Amino acid sequence: MFSHVTVGTNDLGKAKGFYESLLNPLGLVRHVEFPSAVGYGPAGGRPQLWVLNPVDKKAATVGNGITVGLEAANRAAVEAAYKAGMAAGGRDEGPPGLRPHYHPNYYGAYLRDPDGNKVCIVCHKSASSPA
């Protein structure tokens, strides 16, 4: 449904370290890098998540109610991405665990990137589903 999503940053180097740590366990890689933007996506695919300095040269700000949701292949990948993101400067918004109020197999974790953007890592499969 989406072509891409962009996340603004005021420190591209710091954001790049965070997102590369967070995205690695999810199998997402850096496809392209420019002086003011970095694009990530699935290996062999195209960049679909862009981290960038705002084009209008104003400070990047956090959108209230906006969350970038990233799908994980399994629950272990949710946990690995969350741990890596926290180690790379993320702030906890909800550790890995079931969120049955969404649906019985919703296993997710929430954190904020160094600029305060909210990120969710989620697996919609049961614990017994193959990866």
Q: Can you walk me through this structure?
A:
With 131 residues, this protein is of the alpha/beta class. It has one domain (5-54, 64-123): Roll (2,3-Dihydroxybiphenyl 1,2-Dioxygenase, domain 1). 19% of the residues lie in helices and 35% in strands. It contains two helices and eight strands. It has helices at residues 12-23, 75-87; strands at 5-8, 28-34, 37-42, 49-52, 67-71, 91-98, 107-112, 118-123. The strands form two sheets. A four-stranded mixed beta sheet has the order 1-4-3-2, with helices on one face. Strands 5-8-7-6 form a four-stranded mixed beta sheet, with helices on one face. The two termini are 23 Å apart. The model has no long low-confidence stretch (mean pLDDT 95).
